[in-house]
Amino acid sequence: MRKALIYLNIILLICSCKNDDDQKQIETEEFNIRINSQINIPPEDSDFFVATIDTGNKQVFEYNFDSPSDPQIADSGFSEIIIFEIQSDIEEFNLKNEELNNINAFYRAICFCPNTESVRISEGTISGKKINSTSWTIQIDVKIDLDSKNIDSTIIDKKITHIFTKI
């Protein structure tokens, strides 16, 4: 009887170690172009400043990175978004520093972080060239100041070169 209980405990231990939560979490990246869209910018004094994509007459480029949360680690998920817009008739552009304000370039981290609001990108370069009617080559090389009002602010360097496609 004692041996049977020991074997039963061993079998239960082995079976309980394998479950769906043990599957490897997969990070994803998306590189999208939204036509007939524009970036909606809330007032600067909003309680929660988040730039969003709405219907409009421009093209909005959207980079999404998602690292799913680990069920065994509290508050472990992380996502980030970079968005910017250009006029629909442009076929090539190269913008630097304060010129990035002209394309409403924003970064947003979604995580268990102090700042999850949209942050205006105003340092670095974003360039693009139209490949065909559905694709662009986009290069992003920017620095994002997560809290420009704080002397100890965190600066994020983002470098992305990829083909963005219309969805």
Concise synopsis of the structure shown:
The chain has 167 residues and is mostly beta strands.
Give an account of the 3D structure.
Helix content is 10%, strand content 49%. With 167 residues, the protein is mainly beta.
Summarize the SSE layout with pairings.
Blueprint: H1 2-17, E1 28-40, E2 52-55, E3 58-67, E4 78-87, E5 92-96, E6 106-111, E7 119-120, E8 123-130, E9 135-145, E10 155-166
Parallel strand pairs: 1-10
Antiparallel strand pairs: 1-2, 1-3, 3-4, 4-6, 5-8, 6-7, 8-9, 9-10
Number of strands: 10
The count of domains is: 1
**Tally of helical segments:** 1
Mean pLDDT: 85
Bin the strand percentage. Answer: over 45%
Level of helix content?
under 10%
Morphology: globular
Features:
single chain, 167 residues, mainly beta, 1 helix, 49% strand
